[in-house]
């Protein structure tokens, strides 16, 4: 009796998954709350004294042009949505819009902390 070895060159995928790499609604929450600024004094200082520099840094860290927020309408809402998508964080575009509109400085600090937690 001959022994046959099968080599798997592609992992089997779930029947209806296709190209989807994660859950539609995310699988976790933010690592820190919106008002968790006390966890990161340096982030608060950067936000208070040079918000534009902090936003440019966030753009670069997610692989976008550092000046994207000057060039693209709604770029900051898009940035928050991209960070949620990259991290598999629960939420919605409407929620991102409300947070960025009502709590802009805290939201930017939260995104900075999240990217740090994600290793970006």
| Cα-atom radius of gyration | 19 Å
Which overall shape is indicated by the principal axes computed on the Cα atoms?
elongated
Beta-strand content bin: under 5%
Uncertain regions spanning at least 5 consecutive residues:
none
What is the typical, i.e. mean, pLDDT?
87
Helix content: 40-55%
Q: How many individual β-strands?
A: 0
Question: How far do the termini sit from each other?
Answer: 54 Å
Structural class designation: mainly alpha
What order do the SSEs take from the amino end to the carboxyl end, as H and E? HHHHHH
Main beta sheet: none
Individual helix count = 6
Explain this structure to me?
It is a single chain. This protein starts with 40 loop residues before the first helix and ends with a helix. Helix 1 (41-49) packs across helix 6 (104-117), helix 2 runs parallel beside helix 6 (104-117) and helix 4 (75-87) packs across helix 5. The chain has helices spanning 41-49, 51-61, 68-71, 75-87, 93-102, 104-117. It is built from six helices and no strands. Helix content is 51%, strand content 0%. It has a domain at 37-117. The mean pLDDT is 87. The protein is mainly α and 120 residues long. The chain is elongated, with a radius of gyration of 19 Å.
């Amino acid at each position: 009796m001959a022994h046959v070895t099968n080599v798997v060159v592609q992992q089997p995928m779930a029947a209806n998954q296709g190209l989807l790499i994660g859950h539609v609604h995310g699988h976790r929450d933010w690592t820190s709350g919106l008002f968790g600024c006390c966890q990161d004094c340096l982030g608060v200082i950067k936000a208070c004294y040079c918000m534009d520099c902090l936003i440019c840094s966030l753009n670069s860290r997610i692989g976008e042009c550092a000046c994207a927020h000057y060039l693209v309408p709604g770029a900051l809402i898009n940035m928050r949505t991209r960070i949620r998508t990259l991290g598999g964080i629960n939420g919605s575009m409407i929620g991102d819009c409300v947070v960025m509109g009502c709590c802009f400085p805290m939201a930017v600090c939260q995104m900075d902390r999240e990217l740090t937690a994600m290793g970006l």
